[in-house]
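[RESIDUES AND BACKBONE]
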Amino acid sequence: MQSLMIRNKTARIPIIQGGMGVGVSRGKLAGAVAAAGGVGIISSAQIGFDEPDFLSNHQEANLRALKKHIQYAKEQADGGLVGVNVMVALKDYEAHVRASVEAGADVVICGAGLPANLPELTAGSDTCFAPIVSSQKAASILLKRWDKKYQTTADFLVIEGPKAGGHLGFSQDDLQKDQENTLNYDTEICKIIETTQEYATKYQKKIPVILAGGVFDADDIRHAMALGASGVQIASRFVVTEECDASPIYKQAYLDASADDIRIIQSPVGMPGRAIHNAFLDRTEAQIPRCLGCLAKCDPSRIPYCITDALIRAVNGDTQNGLLFCGENVSRIQKMTTVPELMAELEPGFVQN
């Protein structure tokens, strides 16, 4: 089995655990995944929601909690790789990236927008960086910009497909085509890999491409590797592990979800998102008791609910009055497991016959 090489860092198993906010993937889950041989990822999105001063001083609370969870994860990682997922849509996006670097994160992954200045934010550090893209156009624009402005390129790249959970970089039309099995996304994946290889050649370095979105089992991993990926990113399956930072009630909602429960919603972030249907999604009245200013582009007078409040309620166990992001295949999850057991189940997907 080939390990995942990212610049000067190595993960024994080429699995990146996807970042899940608010509070679903923090230090406990990320540390366990890293210790099991993968790359454990902390989501920085409102990570300090349970800090005592979060409501009065949420910016400082988030930065403090982010550094605390990185340190905790690295202590549990047994030398494994720990990283952070930072949404570009966050108002404090730059501060979260810089804090991650200062705390010694091995990697930073940025999506929910194009991280145009990411090389600048990680410059001079040992932290590797990657964008999340969903199209060849986005990959080309970003890599061309980094090449021209910073004379550098990505350390790795994550391709997130239409079956992913949370925020999706696709139009409603493309998501509908995917549901109808008329969206040939494998072709787009190959185009993104080809574009990435151009910059790998120019900079004489390997740029691993990680495939995400709907990766569920070893067969999905084999398919990803056959397309030319160097590894996979998996999120939803790690929710239903004992080590996941979410509440047991949140995990049970994943176990109870059927295929008919999955919905595509419009998030206040300004992107479509995939979530589990519940009473919260049925309501139409405003759900904005307060605004914490978490998003760079958010007008409280025009959005249907506060995404921070919705995600915090869910992760704390109020699954009927909160927002539960999930991947397309959540209904296939049947039982609680542990991170080592899940990694052992997935590992054969990388073994070459």
About this structure: The longest helix spans residues 58-76. The chain is about 35% helix and 15% strand. Residues 248-315 form one domain.
